[in-house]
Design goal:
Elements (H helix, E strand, L loop, with lengths): L1 H11 L9 H6 L3 H13 L14 H10 L5 H21 L10
Length: 103
């Protein structure tokens, strides 16, 4: 019962602006809050986000090259980076003591 009451309450606070009519807004006790929410939704940009044809910086270049094309390459790059990092940490803390063959 508590779960349905919380779900019902959380759904009633997220009213899309197209569903709310002016008749409902006039008689609602929280009409100012709903009016502010409608104005907020109207101020959001419409349509798809513009694409950047010439990304600046290595992070934006990498994102444009691999993430926007749904490539598997970032997973392979992450795996290689983790292997290189873990080997370097292992070498620093353990293997450098055994480079001359004594144990």
């Amino acid at each position: 019962m508590l779960r349905t009451m919380l779900a019902k309450r959380s759904l009633t606070t997220l009213i899309p602006p197209k569903i709310v009519s002016s008749h409902q807004m006039a008689k609602a006790p929280n009409a100012k809050r709903v009016s502010n929410m409608v104005n907020f939704y109207k101020s959001l940009p419409q349509g798809p986000a513009p694409t950047n044809k010439n990304p600046k910086g290595i992070v934006n270049w990498y994102k444009a090259k691999y993430f926007e094309k749904d490539s598997v390459q970032p997973l392979l790059h992450l795996t290689a980076a983790v292997l290189i990092f873990s080997y370097s940490v292992d070498y620093y803390f353990h293997l450098r003591h055994h480079k001359d063959g004594e144990h």
